[in-house]
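For the sake of transparency, this paper describes our internal protein records without simplification. The record that follows is passed on verbatim for readers who wish to inspect the format:
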Amino acid sequence: MNANATPVKAPLSERLLSPILIKEMRSSMRGARFFVGITFFLLLIATVSLMVYYVQALDSYSNPTTIGRTLFGFMTAVESMLLMAIAPSLTAGAIAGERQKQTFEMLMATPLGVGQVLRGKLAASLNYLFLLLIAAIPINSIVFLLGGITPGSLIAWIIWLSVSVIMLATFGLLVSSWMTRAGLATTLTYLLSALLFVVLPVMMLFIGTSFFFAAGNQPPCRSLASLGLLHPLAGFMAINGVFSSNWTSYWPYLIAVLSFYIALSGLFYLASRARLSSILGVPNRRRWLIVVPLVVAIVAVVAIVTGPVEQLCNFPAP
């Protein structure tokens, strides 16, 4: 054999895409469940949109602009709840499922590194979620026929939902890296998600409201209330014009909260990588990278609490 022979290059698709992503896409798209899921997803959004339009059209005081805004709000709310509920379930069993089937060691015996495995599993889950999001865009665009919604509102909502979905997907991946059973990982992911995004915000709402009225709207109480703007619901409300009809004035807030979500996604991913590296006994030479998303998250929180985006809370002057 000639030692100077030029090695054969892998196809471009294999060099750009993870082998795990290609494998997951091939296996998922062969069955009917993949296409049935997309069909039911679109039918549900279309049904809700039709019902909202019918109810609004019966109101004699409604005009096309009002109908368009209401339809956009309900349509995006349903789609956001569905995708944000599906996201953690797809990644919760990514690593735990491999360990349950006792194929995790075989997977790590391949030339793929820990990072490549995690990115492949994450990309395979996000591929389905983004396909659902893209498939629903024609239905979302119906609101342009009625008015009241600009293309910028739709684009901002798509960006916000994409980043939120990635954050929840990486959170599910983190939980999966600690579990050995896919069912247990999925259950724990939903319990922790409910605790972080439902129970904790409600507790902060009651506690913050009590302090707010007791202290007479002092700056510390205003900052505590501003922490509620970190919740994904606040971003959704800002894009839908709940705080003000001119949602574009809240770009500083949207940029800050999206930066916070991206930083959390990075933290969850790097923590998952560190966990798998410790399980396999592989040195994690890039653990210092966790400082980057941590700093970004802290800066984003400070910007939301103390920056000009405090106007979202609509606090009166003390």
